[in-house]
Specification:
Blueprint lengths: L22 E6 L2 E2 L5 E7 L2 H14 L11 E7 L2 E2 L19 E5 L6 E3 L27
Antiparallel strand pairs: 1-6, 2-5, 3-4, 6-7
Length: 142
């Protein structure tokens, strides 16, 4: 899944940052749900979820001004396969069968971008055990 409002992306394979267009890549890999699995996502304005997220961001960046969210996007990759309809490694998250996943964000200006350590390598499979805020699997950016 990739969030990009500037252009339509036709490639399921990730590209290394920096890029010439803005993109949020919570998990950019060759996921293929034609054989098995689903990708679920939703935007919510639930007060309790927004409060939890705002607390995580504020705790991660205590010297910054307060963070106020109006909505949160939640995404789940459930028992997904990889391209081309492969189902033998479901719930394995490193882009087997293609380029390993890219995780991070890119402002599109060739200056402001961040790739989670391990992006585009086989070690991205460990993303659920790593963090930049001391909570396994949580990466926070403001």
């Amino acid at each position: 899944m990739v969030i990009c409002h500037i252009l339509l992306l036709y490639s399921y394979t990730s590209s290394p940052f920096p890029l010439s267009y803005p993109i949020i890549a919570p998990y950019w890999a060759d996921v293929d749900t034609r054989g098995t699995g689903s990708v679920y996502y939703r935007e919510t304005s639930s007060a309790s979820i927004i409060s939890t997220v705002a607390s995580h961001v504020s705790n991660a960046f205590p010297s910054q001004s307060p963070f106020y969210a109006t909505s949160v996007v939640i995404a789940t990759w459930y028992r997904v396969g990889y391209y081309n309809r492969h189902t033998d490694k479901v719930e394995v998250s490193n882009g087997f069968g293609g380029t390993p996943a890219q995780v991070g964000f890119n402002a599109g200006d060739n200056t402001n971008y961040y790739a989670v350590p391990g992006s585009e390598t086989s070690s991205i499979v460990n993303i659920e055990t790593t963090s930049n805020v001391g909570v396994a699997g949580m990466w926070v950016f403001k």
